[in-house]
Amino acid sequence: MHEVFETVAAAVPDIRAGLPGRRRKTDEENASGETQLAADVWADELLEERLTALDSVGAYASEERDDVVDAGDGVSVAVDPLDGSSNLKSNNPMGTVVGVYDAPLPASGTGLVAAGFVLYGPITTMVVAEGAAGRPASDATATEYVVEDGTPRDVGAVELPEDPTVYGFGGRVPDWTDDFEAFVREVEDELKLRYGGAMIADVSQVLTYGGIFGYPGLRDRPEGKLRLLFEGAPIAYVVEAAGGASTDGERSLLDVPATRLHQRTPVFVGDDAYVERVESL
Ligand code: P6P
Questions:
Q1: What is the whole-number distance in angstroms between the Cα of residue 127 and the centre of ligand 1?
Q2: Which of 37, 83, 213, 228 to mutate to test the pocket of ligand 1 (most atoms within 8 A of CB)?
Q3: Residue where a domain stops, chosen among 138, 157, 176
């Protein structure tokens, strides 16, 4: 396991222990214009400190920071410290997303050599997909670990089930395009709705039960809501390593050119037949 993920796992008990007292909002906004929770800022500062201390890490970027933090030579780590942090107030699952790029940021998903996420659920788990520079995500393997005490315990390979069962799509129905809404009306007759407001938790449903998760481009925001470098590309790397597919509506999320650190993209990950149907819209 790359030392980045050993370090993230070791930080889990501290992140988890710090959540109860940090449900309040700050009066700050992040680079994406979202009001930051005390927990967002605190988890970001904790991960920045521990990850930049690693000799193998040369740069740290996060959803909560405008710019990349230089840390010398090595891989670039892109982090969403608390994905779905709005679920903290309602005490619903959320996660930490980590992308390890063998390239300076902003970099497209083809620069990923590893990606993973921590899921703060009833059990705290971490899924890690590790590959090699220049190799497709489908050559990587995805593994799940229990990380309750900060030490990763391997609990097996992650492989997308053949038969799709669940779906979840973000955004409000009136904000969806007509084509997308018509597609979802078909999917409603085929799969069960599982949407909880935290990408990591919803993608974990798809990786466990099969199906598709997405956050589409919207009428007034065709680029959608999710960030390419911090959410879309890393989660696509994991899902493609697990045997699934991804798309922004046209191509794999790993092939979407990255021009800005906080650029947004429509995100769809999961069963390849459903991903193909999204691309045919
Ligand atoms: P909405 C959380 O804020 C997040 O970035 C993702 O984790 C999640 O999938 C999405 O936004 C939820 O957005 O519009 O449903 O609240």
A1: 20
A2: 83
A3: 157
How far is residue 149's CA from residue 151's CA, in Å, rounded to a whole number? 6
DSSP bridge pairs for 156: 144
Question: Per-residue pLDDT for 36 more than 90?
Answer: no
The closest residue, in CA terms, to atom 2 on ligand 1 is: 84
149 lies in the same domain as 14: yes
Residue 95 alpha carbon, nearest atom of ligand 1: 7
Q: Is 82 in the same domain as 181? A: no
Q: Does 198 contact ligand 1 (Cβ within 6 A)?
A: yes
Dihedral sign from CA coordinates of 114, 5, 264, 141: positive
Whether the CB of 196 sits within 6 Å of ligand 1 = no
CATH assignment at residue 204: 3.40.190.80
pLDDT tens digit sequence for 45-61: 999 999 999 999 999 99
Ligand 1 midpoint to CA 279 (Å): 22
- Beta-carbon neighbour count of residue 135 at 10 Å? 11
Q: What's the pLDDT band for 35 if we cut at 50, 70, 90?
A: confident
C-beta of 86 in contact with ligand 1 (< 6 A):
yes
Tally the domains of the chain: 2
Instruction: Provide the domain limits for residue 265.
Output: 166-280
**Mean pLDDT, residues 63-83:** 97
The sign of the dihedral angle between the CA atoms of 175, 81, 20, 7 is: positive
The verdict on 137 and 12 lying in the same domain is: yes
Measuring CA to CA, which residue among 231, 222, 215, 232 is closest to residue 172?
215
